[in-house]
C-alpha cells in the first residue's frame, strides 16, 4: 500500500509518501491538475492500493472525485486537530505533508467524521507495526539527510 500525506493547495499539493511493502519514502510537489492527476493515475495503472490523508479543504472537489474514481482511500482530517498535534509551530508545505504522513502511520490521524471520498474504508491495522521506522526516515528527510 502507498500511504500519502498531502498538503493540499488550490494550485499544487506537496506530498510525502511511503510504500509499505518496500519501505521507500519519497516527497514530491504536484502541480494541479495535470501533475497530480498523472501521478495518481500512474499509481492506479500499477495496481497500487493507496490511502491519501489531507486537511479538510473546500478547493479539493476535483481531487476527491479523482481519488474516488481510482478507488483510492481519502482520509479528510480536522485541520485544527492536525495543527494541535504538530510539535513545531514553524512550518512549511513540506513539513505539513510529512506531519500528515506521520499521523497516518501512527494511526493518529484526526479524521473528520463522515468525510471520505473512498468507496471502501480499510482499517489501518496493517501499518501499526511500521510507524517507528518510517517516522525516523521522515525526521531524517525533514533535517535534510538523504540516503
Largest sheet: 6 strands, mixed
Can you tell me the residue ranges where pLDDT is under 50 for at least 5 consecutive residues?
117-130
Task: Quickly give the CATH architecture.
Answer: 2-Layer Sandwich
> What is the CATH third-level topology name?
Nucleotidyltransferase, domain 5
Number of self-contained structural domains: 1
Mean pLDDT: 83
Shape: globular
Per CATH, the class reads Alpha Beta
Strand % is 25-35%
Helix-strand string: EEEHEHEHHEH
First-to-last CA distance: 22 Å
Which range best describes the helical content: under 10%, 10-25%, 25-40%, 40-55%, 55-70% or over 70%?
A: 25-40%
Widest sheet: strand order? 3-2-1-4-5-6
Number of separate strands: 6
What is the SS-derived class?
Answer: alpha/beta
Number of distinct helices: 5
Compute the CA-based radius of gyration: 14 Å
